[in-house]
Amino acid sequence: LTDTTALIGVDWGSSNLRVLRIAAGGAVLDRRADPRGAAGLQPGDFPEVLAAVAGDWLTDDAPVLVCGMAGARNGWAEVPYRSCPATAADLAAGLVRPDPDRAAAIVPGVAFSPGGVLTDVMRGEETQVVGLAADGVVVAPGTHSKWIVIEDSRIVSVRTSLTGELFAAIRKATMLGAGMGEPGVDIAAFRRGVERSLHERDLGAALFSVRVEALAGRLAPFEAADYLSGLLIGAEVAGQDAARLAGPLTLVGDPALSARYAEALDLAGARDVRVADAEQATAAGLWRIWEMTR
Amino acid sequence: LTDTTALIGVDWGSSNLRVLRIAAGGAVLDRRADPRGAAGLQPGDFPEVLAAVAGDWLTDDAPVLVCGMAGARNGWAEVPYRSCPATAADLAAGLVRPDPDRAAAIVPGVAFSPGGVLTDVMRGEETQVVGLAADGVVVAPGTHSKWIVIEDSRIVSVRTSLTGELFAAIRKATMLGAGMGEPGVDIAAFRRGVERSLHERDLGAALFSVRVEALAGRLAPFEAADYLSGLLIGAEVAGQDAARLAGPLTLVGDPALSARYAEALDLAGARDVRVADAEQATAAGLWRIWEMTR
User: Which of A102, A278, B66, B207 is the most exposed place for a label (fewest CB within 10 A)?
Assistant: First the structure.
């Protein structure tokens, strides 16, 4: 019975789509991925793309619950953000059905507006937070890294860093990126980058060190991408306040990237850090939110 | 007599070339500019490009003095850096003639190696510093912004920030840059960006505010480039130590960019700031270095 589909979970990010076949309880039975992210689609495209990727899973019995950028403006249907503090029940109460005839619903994102001033937003990570069901700080590294604080099972704040997008832009559009390989080759070079940024208030100055280190013969071409990754992740970690670094911290994202963040957090003195499975967190979160609607 | 050419001055940057006809004393009589920067040339190309741009000025009587990236590895001829502390006389002593048959010489760049460890370099700005002939801090904003400290007419340190290149890369290769106009339109948006970065340790987090400010309706598309420029220049200024900000500070660079830096420095509490003419500084520096060789 546990291999019966209870929910089709969809994590529709800006640049890719993941569809999960989920059993009652939140276990993942099967998965599909597709590069047709929400950023490249028109509202009318979403049902077709979903049918193309996982049409054979879409039966009358299996409800579809979607999180991520499908709920953004210009997405499948705009789902208003829920404000912090936000609970799993708040998210369940904010679901929007993009198509009245079908059993698909989209989870709202969460907005952080201290003193009534909107300062940060997320779409997708709130569902992982619900799936993790742990107080403390959830860090979701990636194109836009999210630091989410959870107290008494309520999301109380979110803080975003453009780290991943900055890394890609520097590699693509600066002289530092010329001839640079892939990160993940040299952990020592990564650590040196982190240390540099932990002691440097100006990221632009830290970035120039990529050039000087190479000029001085201290940074080989194969080490450069890791050093750069260390500079950027180090700057992100250095910008967090002491309460966030005190944790407990849960990393949820790409495993290799999460491992690098764990290393950077260790160098910054954070001691209470664990790495969670991102897919499992998404599935558990979708299941939990879905259960609250019944 | 003062309109007689005494020196042909060349400022050969990475991405452009400036040739100055200089009178005795350092006054600029005439100027030419060309987009053939040193980064796109092979060593053998330099004499030809110079002749193409200013061949009619190159007589037997007028010596040619070059500063900038023409002296870099893979430039016209590699000129070893002089180490801090460096005086104008040190620069004059380090001139290299790329072609023994001609009266052209290249000014060395300056390297900063505290405790014997190379941490920063410059090529070109040292000549402007000599031309300005002022103690304190010279800030040369641009693709690679330089903060140069001068004590007792000696260059004692240089610190580089990749600010301008980062600005270009973010505009070119991130979603923030999509549809962004040119900076220089809205000084209030620039100031908001500076203030944000003065109070934000993580540039990646400050950068995400470009998206949130737009989402919240607080940043119009025409303001976005100025806001972004403010974030980046603000982060550069915030990363300087108190001694540098105490000045006296002299800004030398593109006039519009120098004006923005003056605004950012004012917001950061720097009170002793002046803006100098960059071309005049280069010409005066080349003249002064040339005089020392005779």
Answer: A102
For residue range A83-136, list pLDDT tens digits in order: 999 999 999 999 999 988 777 999 999 999 999 999 999 999 999 999 999 999
Task: Please tell me the predicted confidence (pLDDT) of residue B2.
Answer: 54
- Shortest distance, CA A24 to any CA of chain B (angstroms): 37
B169 with A169: Cβ contact below 8 A: yes
CB-CB under 8 Å, B169 with A170: yes
Closest CA to B88 of B155, B141, B31, B142: B155
Q: B interface mutation test: which of A158, A180, A194, A203 has the most B CBs within 10 A?
A: A203
Chain A: nearest CA to B22, how far in angstroms? 33
Beta-carbon separation of B208 and A120 below 8 A? yes
Q: Which residues of B14-48 are buried (b: 16+ CB within 10 A; e: fewer)?
A: beebbbbbbbeebbbeeeeeeebbbeebeeeebbe
Q: Are B126 and B149 in contact (CB under 8 A)?
A: no
Nearest-CA distance A239 → chain B (Å):
4
Size of interface A-B (CB pairs under 8 A): 126
Contact status of B203 with chain A (Cβ, < 8 Å): yes
Separation in Å, CA A129 to CA A20, A90, B121: 17, 13, 46
**Are the C-beta atoms of A281 and A9 separated by less than 8 Å?**
no
Q: Can you give the pTM of this predicted structure?
A: 0.95
What does the pLDDT look like over A219-260, one tens digit per residue?
A: 999 999 999 999 999 999 999 999 999 999 999 999 999 999
CB contact under 8 A, B169 and A168: no
Please give the ipTM for the structure prediction.
Answer: 0.94
Long-range contacts of B259-265 (CB under 8 A, 24+ apart): B260/B141, B260/B183, B260/B184, B260/B190, B260/B229, B260/B230, B260/B233, B261/B139, B261/B141, B261/B233, B261/B237, B263/B187, B263/B190, B263/B191, B263/B194, B264/B190, B264/B194, B264/B230, B264/B233, B264/B234, B264/B236, B264/B237, B265/B237
Cα dist from A18 to A35, A87, A275, A280, B17, whole Å: 9, 24, 20, 12, 51
Q: Looking at beta carbons, which residues of chain B come within 8 Å of A172?
A: 169, 172-173
Whether omega for the bond prior to residue B248 falls within 30 degrees of 0, making it cis, is: yes
Nearest C-alpha neighbor of A221 from the set A192, A282, A185, A179: A179
Residues of B in contact with A238 (CB under 8 A): 201-202
